[in-house]
């Protein structure tokens, strides 16, 4: 008899949960920070443990070892953020290892940093695939980037770490 009452209560609770309005995460906002999800950040530390779940008791799956690496936050839980890298590989990392400083990774084989945000600008330098630079201003098609002492404009579609429709001031 108690089992049938318990099952009935569980069914009722599930029905109530399904009828509730969308949560912050379902609306594209993090439930902890109320910041947009997904969003890009960078690795603040020179090393960051990526765990299977959001706590120190979860196993470390791998370690990021590149300061300023751009990462995309896809979920939040307490002091933990679920991130993924440019390869789509992800896990949970403590928020203290992340920074709001925006960086991007060059995905094209080679890209020119231009003096202005258009193809008619003069090349300042060339960046190879895998170079990480700090982002400045980003328009619809171009982003200003600083890398290895050089500053210039790069086509947004050659970068990973900034959304296609994202504009930065």
From TrEMBL:
Presence of keyword Signal: yes
A family per Pfam: SH3_4
Keyword Signal: yes
Record key words, sorted: Signal
Signal peptide: 1-24
Gene3D superfamilies, per the entry: SH3 Domains
Protein name in the entry: Aspartyl-trna synthetase
Organism, as annotated: Oceaniovalibus guishaninsula JLT2003
Lineage of producing organism: Bacteria, Pseudomonadati, Pseudomonadota, Alphaproteobacteria, Rhodobacterales
């Amino acid at each position: 008899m108690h089992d049938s009452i318990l099952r009935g209560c569980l069914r009722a609770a599930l029905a109530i949960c399904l009828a509730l309005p969308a949560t912050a995460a379902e609306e594209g906002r993090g439930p902890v920070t109320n910041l947009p999800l997904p969003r890009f950040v960078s690795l603040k530390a020179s090393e960051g443990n990526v765990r299977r779940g959001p706590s120190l008791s979860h196993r470390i799956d791998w370690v990021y070892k590149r300061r300023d690496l751009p990462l995309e936050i896809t979920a939040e839980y307490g002091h933990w953020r679920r991130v993924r890298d440019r390869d789509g590989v992800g896990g949970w990392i403590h928020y203290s290892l992340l920074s709001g400083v925006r960086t991007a990774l060059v995905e094209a084989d080679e890209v020119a940093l231009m003096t202005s945000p258009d193809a008619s600008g003069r090349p300042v330098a060339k960046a190879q695939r895998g170079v990480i630079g700090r982002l400045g201003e980003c328009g619809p098609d171009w982003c200003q980037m600083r890398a290895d002492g050089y500053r210039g404009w790069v086509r947004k579609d050659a970068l990973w770490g900034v959304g296609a429709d994202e504009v930065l001031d």
